[in-house]
Amino acid sequence: MLEIRGGVGMSGLIRLDDTWALDHIDAEEIDGGMREAALQLQLLVDRKGAGSEYTGWLNLPIDAPDSVVARLEHAAADLREQSDTVVVCGIGGSYLGARAGLEFLAGVPSRSATDSLPDILFAGNSLSSWQLQKLLDRLAGHRFSVVVISKSGTTLETAVAFHILRTELVRRFGAGKARTRIVAITDSEHGTLHDLARDQGLVTFDLPRDVGGRYSVLTPVGLLPFAIAGLNIRAMLQGAAEQRTASLGSPAATNDALHYAVARRLLNTSGKNIELLTSFEPCLHFVGEWWKQLFGESEGKNGKGIFPASAEFTTDLHSLGQYVQEGTHSLFETVVDVPAPADVAFLCDADSPDGLAYLNGRSLSAMNHDARIATLLAHHDGGVPVLQLTVPDVSEGSFGAAVYFFEVACAVGGYMLGINPFDQPGVEAYKHNMFALLAKPGTEVEAADIRSRLARGN
Ligand code: PA5
Q1: Which residues form the SIS domain (predicted)?
Q2: Which of 82, 229, 413, 444 is most buried by a 10 A CB count?
């Protein structure tokens, strides 16, 4: 049983409101869809559906042993003590969840104001030499450490960046001290990173074999970076556990995760093949990036799936708004609402020359709220169905709940679509070509084939 410390309780569950999509889907269809979703949920929970060997994420919030959480907290404290900067090195499912949580929760009250928290930077998520050089320049003179995350250990972007960062650590601190500045999160039994970590005697955390990358936020993949940032990972798991109870245990009629899966499915069958996840709080930007991977990699196969896109309002209303309002009408919108944890008052003299006196006494949150309602109505009137999701607050518990909510909706939606939501065979195609072009041993045949295709131009 996990002991919750720090007094950060769960604030509630993720809620769906489909009122502004009901022009496009009708109540009878929703009822039928909910019955179907309940059957698919049962398949998921019984581990009888496609890819069931990768459904370990279902129990992560309730299975996390206190000893592992305590070890994570201890490793995080250790890294904090020796570092002013921690570089988290990973890509895809070994990157986006951690970044989503860190950006969503930056500045939450639970982070101790007295602790000196390290800056957390990211690497290994591209092959850009410019990006890596800027990171190395920024690390100069800093006491930095590295958390490397890779389940396979062979992902090129991560492996190359880690190699360069490890070399820099050894150059700066010596081989022995460099080892204490690296934590590896990888497969418990196999892989290049697993072997390297074992041979070098690095501190390691296991990435459970039955959890795929994009469902791994609530493993050490996300939890260690969150703990380093001073976040309450026990409260996060508690929030996810409460959402788990609601999402796996509620009757279909009151199960908002199933309802979301059904609404998406029905909108898709009505001809909407793009989902635009929007929000009016920039702290949700990387939640959108994580969500795109979760749904894109899970659903986009066998010629099926909704294309997941994201936008940040009101910023993108000034760029994408025109298309959403009057474009091809192939999209629906899911707006994620979360109350801002702080507000800024707007005070303005009656004769202010900028003409803003009418806003005197209003807060920025009130303006943002009105902008959200105005956008909802405008987009609805422009023929765009809008689903509304509410996250109760900016807290660790709510982040854990949101992760679990989307994971269940994605898995059930994938089963309704008739695909395996836990594999990603298509991701390998570019890797084959790239490794051949880079002359990785064993790829000579493909390399010759690619060269002749390039010469032919087809
Ligand atoms: O969801 C996935 O499986 C992928 O996005 C992987 O997480 C990503 O490719 C990184 O893989 P790895 O953790 O093996 O380096």
Answers
A1: 75-272
A2: 413
- Burial string for 162-174 (b: 16+ CB within 10 Å, else e) reads bebbbebbeebbe
Q: How far is CA 216 from the centre of its chain?
A: 9
Quick check: CB of 398 below 6 Å from ligand 1? no
Atom of ligand 1 nearest to the CA of 427: 9
Give the distance (Å) from ligand 1 centre to CA of residue 155: 7
Taking the CA atoms of residue 320, residue 385, residue 422 and residue 73 in that order, the dihedral angle to the nearest 10 degrees is: 70
pLDDT, residue 4, reads 45
- What digits encode the pLDDT tens for the residues 283-315? 999 999 999 999 999 999 999 999 999 999 999
Residues in the chain: 458
Backbone phi and psi for residue 196, each to the nearest 5 degrees, phi listed first: -60, -45
0.90 cut: is pTM over it? yes
Looking at the fold, whether 127 and 103 belong to one and the same domain comes out as yes
Question: Known catalytic residue: 329?
Answer: yes
* Pocket flag, ligand 1, residue 247 (CB < 6 Å): no
**Residue located nearest, by CA, to atom 5 of ligand 1:** 92
Q: Kindly state whether residue 1 falls inside one of the protein's structural domains.
A: no
* Domain region containing 199: 59-235
Nearest-angstrom CA–CA distance, 288 and 278: 8
5 lies in a domain? Answer: no
Out of 329, 369, 440, 446, pick the active-site residue: 329
